[in-house]
Every structure is written in structure tokens, then in C-alpha cells.
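for the recovery benchmark. C-alpha cells below, seq after
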């Protein structure tokens, strides 16, 4: 059994923006990448990536979870430090409902260059 929190990196984006969304999460070296998940913008993709990371945390049975991403806007709204943008309410409600199953949860912002999920999206993007 691993000690310490389950750290999950998440990232979402579009190519072009707006355009077809793609998301990724990385947990303990395992990459979860989903492409072509619908049309939207990068902000929506970041929310979907966060929800994807929460789903993975729950699948792994995470009781002590740290979600790590590079979207300041999404992290500030999810932590209650900023008001949601128009259109964010359903994502925020889904996030709050999902994380209720996780006893200990932290959400942390990092630089884009440090985001393992963003790196996974970049390296697996079809050329």
C-alpha cells in the first residue's frame, strides 16, 4: 500500500481553441488521455479534466487525494476562492458532488511546464 496522498495531475485543452476538446490525468505514472470528447473551449476542457481526475481518484479508492493542475481559474472556483463564470455552475456542482466521496482532498495549482498531464497531452498528440 502506498503511503501519502494519491497525487493526480490534470489538464485539458482544445486544438484549435475553441474546438475539439481533449483531457488528460496522470496518477502514479499512469496516463489517462481522452481525445475528441466534444466541441468546447479550453476552460470547459479544464473542468472536464478536473472531473476526470476526481473519477480516477474514486476508482483508485483514494481517501487522501491531491489534485494538481495549471488552470488558475478552475482551481480558484473549485476551492471557493472565486465566483464561477457563466456556464461553470454545472461543472462546479458535479465537482462538489463527486468529491464528497473523498475524505481528504486538496487542490493545488502548478505551472503549465510542471503539469504531467499537460506533458502527456503534448507528447501523445497526433502529428
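predicted aa per position
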Amino acid at each position: 500500500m502506498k503511503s501519502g496522498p494519491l497525487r493526480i495531475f490534470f489538464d485539458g485543452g482544445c486544438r484549435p481553441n475553441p474546438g475539439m476538446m481533449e483531457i488528460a490525468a496522470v496518477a502514479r505514472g499512469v496516463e489517462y488521455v481522452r481525445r475528441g470528447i466534444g466541441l468546447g473551449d479550453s476552460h470547459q476542457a479544464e473542468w472536464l479534466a478536473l472531473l476526470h481526475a476526481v473519477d480516477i481518484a474514486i476508482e483508485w479508492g483514494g481517501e487522501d487525494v491531491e489534485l494538481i493542475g495549471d488552470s488558475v481559474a478552475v482551481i480558484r472556483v473549485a476551492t471557493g476562492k472565486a465566483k464561477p463564470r457563466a456556464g461553470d455552475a454545472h461543472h462546479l456542482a458535479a465537482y462538489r458532488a463527486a468529491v464528497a466521496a473523498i475524505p481528504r482532498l486538496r487542490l493545488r495549482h502548478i505551472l503549465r511546464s510542471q503539469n504531467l498531464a499537460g506533458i502527456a497531452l503534448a507528447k501523445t498528440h497526433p502529428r
